[in-house]
Structures are given as structure tokens and as C-alpha cells.
Design a protein that fits this description.
Distance between the termini: 101 Å
Number of helices: 35
Length: 744
Amino acid sequence: LKERNITCSILEYTLFMIGIHEDTGSCVNTGTTWRDAQAVAELLKSGANLLMAQQFLESRISPEQEGLYQKLLSSKERWEIKGNIIHFYRAVTGSYVEDADVVVQRLRENDGARVLFCLLTLPKKSYLIARSRNDRVQVGEILATLGGGGHKHAASATIEETDWSSVRLNLLKSLEKTIRPGRQASEIMQSPVKSVDMDITIGDAHKILLRYGFGGLPVVDGNGKLTGIISRQDMAKAILHDFSHAPVRAYMTQHAISMNPETPLEVLEMVMMQRQISRIPIVDRENRLLGIVTRGDLFNSLYNGTFASDYHTTFLEPRESTRNVSRVLENLPASALKTLHEIGRLADQERVGCFLVGGIVRDLIMSRSSQDIDIVIEGDAIKFGKQIENCFRGASLHFFPKFGTVSLKISGLRIDFASARVEFYETPAALPDVELSSLKNDLYRRDFTVNSLAIRLNHNGFGDLADYYGGYQDIADGLIRILHRMSFVEDPTRILRAVRFSSRFSFAIEEMTLRMLKTALSENVFKLLTPERIGKELACLCQEEDFSRVLSRFNELKLSRLIFGLSVDERNLAALKRVDGLIKETGIRCNRFQINLLVLTESLSIQKTIDFLKCYKLSDSLSGHLERYLEEQHFILKHLSKNRNFKNSELFKILSAERTEILIFQQAVNENKFYRENIRRYLNLTGIKLKITGSDLIGLGLKSSPEIGSILSEIRSAKLDGFVNSKEEELSLARKLMRKIRPQ
């Protein structure tokens, strides 16, 4: 694999390591070579997971250990304490069995226990051995109360007590006091969940399945009560045999296994493994469907996203990675952080999930400032907004029922709320249809993984990062990555956003993403977009601070010609460099957005640039100024392209009516050195301002009239040509001009 430079997933590396351990007896069989040990080392270096491997590797045990194993296994008790499943085993032996921990390990492997306690009672004392893969049950802390010790995953205790029932009772008391509540189905279930009515046809149900990409759907009756589940395979077989018209109830699995919201996750795991099912509906006491837990949801909640990076390679099912990033929220202004805490408390009262999402999460993690605060509510955002209206005095709220969004303005902040939703596209490049959904589905509709992060604002778990698609790692690795292969086809404007974000953050476009981007371009997906949608994204690109990076990426990907028919190459970069130099030299204030637009369209004539701006509705004001410049271009070029020694006032008169941004651009790209020098002179002159105003002239006795403008214009010309400098000199000249106009 190394010689061929083949990269695998962590799961695959772990499987390879298990194979080597089985073949070599964990590298102790006589046929083991140094190559086997080296291969194991390389696999561990690549990320093979020992915790997973242990579950599949058998330990060799002695006859005494086998006898102890059978005694312990036959005594098994299963306790449920605060939503955590505890396995308790006990055995009475006449003497201590060597390497009893090997027996304990075998129990854990074969019984699938995440937490176990083994009590060995001898004639004079007892030994308690504990193992845990559940961070909420830290066995070191628990056995410390019984005189033992260890760490959170493994611990033991020697107890001067031979009555096993007494030790058992003390252990139970310690567990009740020490362990934290375990996670329940309600915490990880997807809700609301997409379901189908039992009387819908197989054909229609299959369309829904394809639209959302599910592997199966819960089936409900007219009252929303669960009646069964129908899988993708069941539908495919029915369609294959021409039964698309048949109702779902005819082919669904009836009496589907379901659980209540309080079910511990370990119970869900056990049921899924025993029944070999991949999803469990969550229902209330009346069997009404509340949500669903998939195997992926469960696996990643129990194992804390150990294999989240697999997604990157092959676009596998999303997996949540859990970490708390509340520290990054401290970078927000104190007033903003206080408001977010209050919103989180309100969400707790309303029993809805509340999450900070999108660009602000990305920027906080990257220690960048961000102005936009977006919050997703797992529920009805409009209803939640009305509660905000009652709780926040002096707040300004605007409701947008059509889009299910609310905008809050308070203490100088603007916060936008939206319901968690899912999008689907009926045709490429179309605007999406939207339905209420879960947070995971809401984040899946985002453009890139770095924008698919969310931070919980609810009090319980405040600051927990929801990272289903590996966005946190992509930020660390500096990668722009789409969430699925059809991303650019469904919304081609994401191509421009990929350029924008990769340029802004100096991130690379991930290999698969770049391939999908080029494939979408080869299919000419931009022809399906309206000019307005393209124009909005192009406007965002031209507002980037480091526009040279944008141009470099355009040039690298040949995007400008493919999308807009423009030629963007080194000339554009050279023009932008000259523009930057001129602005720095003159200190002139200008609209960089308009200048960047002009640099981008450098290869076009002025008339074609005007047509381009109008087509994409980019800048009506710039179009108007360009039209004016086009009319006067011949006159300006005729005068300024020759080696004439203009007075400053003459130069100012010729150019003062023209748009500054157009002149800066023309100075950067025009090849006539006299023309460029004259514009440079003019731009430097724009910083010369009069120290007197019309009010000063009125104070000298001149009544308000057009004459004020004429006098100020003459004084400005004199100042430009160096005849006056100070305010006193300007006032003196003003008096002279006033006497000429109105002699005493």
C-alpha cells in the first residue's frame, strides 16, 4: 500500500491489523517475521484502532482461567443505573487465579459489555476488577470509594470482606453516587423524521426515498402512529415485480422494533446487534412516531466519532464528532455572549435544540472576527421568535413566515433564526424545495464541510460542537471540501464560493472536490443559472480583501473563460498590482469592489464591460459612469495622451467629472505614458482641499447664490496652481473675487 501510495480508512487499517494478529498469534507464533511486526507498527502509525481490534482478538487462556470464566459468565447480572448499562459478575474460588484480568478481558469481548465489574471471593478476602468504555462510568473513581484505585477505563480493589452480597451492595451504592447519567435515545434521535403513510403507493414511497437518500422509511397510520418500516430493498423488489402501484402496507415489515425516548444508548446498541437492524424508530407511549436512531447515529455517539475521518475519503454516512469549544465563544463581545446564553436558556424552557451555525462557527474556530450570527432551532423558529419577543425588552424582531426565519436586533447585534430544514433539488441548478428536519440534515445542505459546524447553546452541553462531516479537521488541514458528489450540480454557484473561501483562507480545494468541480464545469452547469444568481456570487468575490488570490485561482482553474467568457491571466494580476500601488501612493479613497470588477473584465472593451455589468446586475452606478466615460473617452485621450504641460487646474477641470475608480483602472492598464502620468497627477491633486466653505463667503457678506460655487471653484484652481495655501490667503482671494463680481 505504501509503495503504491494508497490511502485507506481507519476502519480498513484496523481490519488489516486484526488479520496480522490472527495469523501470527499476536506476533508470537514461530512463523512470525520482522515484516509482520513492521506492518503492525505502520498500521498503528496510520491510525489503526486498538480498542476496536480488541473486540475481535481472542486471548489464549488456561484451564483454571476457563473454569473461572464459566463461573463468572453463569452469574451475570445486568444493571441499569441512570441510563448506563452495568454488567456484574461474581465467582467464589478456593484460591486466586493467575492473570484473572485475562478472563475479565475475555468476558468483555464475548459479552459486549461496555462497563463490567467482576467480584472474585476468596476464603479471606475479595477482589473487584472493573473495566469501562463509558466515560460516564469512571471505574477508577468508583473503586476508590471501596479502597481501590486505577484510571477511568480500568481499576481494581482488594476488599477485606468475604460476604459477596455485602460487597455487591456497597458497589451499587457507590455507583448510584458516582456515575453520571447516561445518554438516551432522545439525545441523538433525528427529529422530525420523514415517514410515509401506510396507504401511499410503493412507487411514490420510492421517490421520497431517492429524494432524501434514506435506506428505509417508517410507516405510520392516519394518526401518526407507527405501523411498520419499509426498506429500500423491499421497495426495489416490489418495483422489480411491477408492484409500484401496491400500497406500502402490503410490503412493509409489520411490528417493527421501536423504543421510547428514555431508552439508554447501550440498550439500542444491543438490540441493533442482536436483531441485525440498522434503524430504530422512537415512539411515545401511544406509539406516535417522535424520531429515529440510525446505526451511524448510535455508533458515533458511543464511540465519540473515532472513525469520522472515513467520511473524507469516500463520502460515507455522516458521523458526529463530539468536542466542547465553549472557549472560542469567549472571543465574542461580552454582550453577544450574554445574549447567546439567554437564548440558550429560553430554548431549554421551550424544549428545543438551539445551535450557533455556519460561518460564525468557522470564524470563531479560526480566531477570525465575524459579524453574522446565525442560529438554527430544532423546531419552529417562528414560534420560538415569539417567545423571544416576550423575553427581550427593547428588541426589534422581524418575522418571515414564508421562509420560516426570524431576525432579531438587540444591543447593536443582529441575530437570524431559522428552523432546522432539509433541501432537495428537483433539477440541477434549481432553487431548492425546503422542509423541516433535524440539525444533521440542516448541516448537510451546507456548501462545504468548514461551514457545516454547529455549537450547542442549550445550557446542558453549552459549547458542544456538532461536527457530522469532518469540518473541524478540514479547518485544521486547510481544505475546502463539498459534502457530496452532486453538490456543484445542485448549486453551481458553489463553484464560485469554493474559489472565494479558498482564496480568503489560503485553503486548498480538496482533491475529490476539485475533480467534481471540473466535472460540473465540463457539463456547463452555469448555463442553468439566472444571471442574477451568478452576479450575486461574483459580487461577493469582488469584495474579497485579497482580490489577487481570487484572480490567481480564476487563472489556475480557467474559470473566467468557462463561466463568463473572460480572459483572466497574468495581465489582470499585473493591473491589480499597479492599482494597489497607485492607491497606496495617492492615499485616495475609492470603491475597491468597483475597481475589482474593472480588473476582472480587463480583457473587454468599455462597451462590453458595460454590457457585462448590466447582464449580471452588478453595479448600476458603475455602468452609468462607464457610459459617461465612454462618451468623453475620445476627448480625454486626445488631451491627456500628449506631452502637454497642463496646469493643475486645467487637469482637474478635464477629469473631475469622471468616476475615480474608472480613472484608477485606466491609469493601471493604459499603455500611453503621458496619459498614465496625467491621471496620476490628477489623483494626487484630489487630496488638496479648500480650508474655507460657502459659510465663510456668506460671513463675508455674499448672499447664497450660484456665485458662491463659482468663487470657490476659482479659489480651488488658484490653490491647485500654488497661488494660495493658507486659509487667510483663501479668504483674501475670496474678497478680491467678490469685489469683481459686486464692485463697491
